[in-house]
UniProtKB/TrEMBL annotation:
GO molecular function terms noted in the UniProt entry: monooxygenase activity
Organism: Rhodovibrio salinarum
Domain of life assignment: Bacteria
Protein name: Antibiotic biosynthesis monooxygenase
Ranges for domain ABM: 2-96
UniProt keyword annotation of Oxidoreductase present: yes
Signal peptide coordinates: none
Entry keyword annotation includes Oxidoreductase: yes
Record's keyword terms, sorted: Monooxygenase, Oxidoreductase
Amino acid sequence: MFFAMNRFHVQRGAEDRFEEVWANRESHLSEVPGFVAFKLLRGPEMETYTLFVSHTTWESRDAFEAWTRSDAFRKAHASAGANKDIYLGPPQFEGFEVVQSEP
């Protein structure tokens, strides 16, 4: 199993707009082999930003990497730069492979 996460520093006051962008997006994830689940997480509020994390679960790192090269990925990210003003910098990617798990 592989977990892919992007951390977003969203400017304070733009949280509702950020959530709306994600709620109205075309993700295309359900079309992709190996996709398991998606969650959008809202984290702590700092002085200048609120932390959000997009979290996807994949059957394997290979499945995730195949998605990043797919038409579904290109379609899902076609308008990624349209709301740059709500972010404090680009998202920070983190990928994790499961090394231990309990039910």
